[in-house]
Amino acid sequence: MARMRKNIVVGVCAGISSYKSCYLVSLLRKENFSVKVVMTPNTLHFVTPLVFETLSANPVYVDMFEREHLTHISLAEWCDLGVIAPLTANTLSKIALGISDNLLTTFICALPPSKRIILVPAMNENMWKNSIIQKNLKELKRLKRFVILEPKRGRLACRKDGVGRMVEPEEILAKIKSILKK
Fold first, then answer.
1. How far apart are CA 141 and CA 121, in angstroms?
2. CA angle at residue 99 from 108 to 158, to 5 degrees?
3. How would you label 127-142 residue by residue, b for 16+ Cβ within 10 Å and e otherwise?
4. Catalytic residue positions?
């Protein structure tokens, strides 16, 4: 008997490592997951929806009001797991504070409590170490529904080595598979 196909919503925030999310979507499709992508509006400065549409074989969502009514609710009902990669300092803080001012943060707010969300932060080392970001991260860790794959040390967009580099897509895929096995 074939295993049931799982549905993943990949949220993509505006960071240089958003290119890695393209590879993540490709890996997920190769593993027979159904994937829908939600991009924050500023992500359009880094990668186009066409790339994600091609890789996911699904429409890409950016604006709350561009597609069907109550997009955030239908995505929340459809998905088995949410992943935000990369997660910026801005969106991390919005999630921690319950701010729902774009499609991605509203989708997160609309997810039933039983559904898990993998957060994959990526940012400059100073941003990562900022006490406000760390406070918001601590709050998200306290909530059991969030799984956080903390950034690694490596070369950053500012051309310095430091902590803030997004984990590799293969590691994210392994975590997705691990969570969905349970």
1. 13
2. 85
3. bbebeebeebbeebee
4. 158
Instruction: Report the C-alpha gap between 149 and 155 in whole angstroms.
Output: 18
**Buried residues in 25-58 as b, exposed as e (16+ CB within 10 A):** bbbbbeeebbbbbbbbeebeebbebebbeebbee
Residue 149 CA to residue 167 CA, distance in Å, equals 7
Question: One-letter amino acid identity for 136?
Answer: N
At 109-147, the pLDDT tens digits run 999 999 999 999 999 998 999 999 999 999 999 998 999
Q: State residue 182's pLDDT score.
A: 61
CATH code 3.40.50.1950 for 7-181: yes
Question: Against a cut of 0.90, is the pTM above it?
Answer: yes
Q: The tokens of 59 are what?
A: 């429409």
In the beta sheet, which residues pair with residue 84? Answer: 11, 119
Q: Where are the domains of the chain?
A: 7-181
Which residues, given as ranges, of the chain have pLDDT below 50? Answer: 1-2
Q: How far apart are CA 54 and CA 121, in angstroms?
A: 25
C-alpha distances out from residue 24 to 11, 18, 132, 143, 171, Å: 11, 10, 29, 25, 10
Contact 140, 148 (CB under 8 A): yes
The continuous run of DSSP H or E covering 131 comes out as helix 131-142
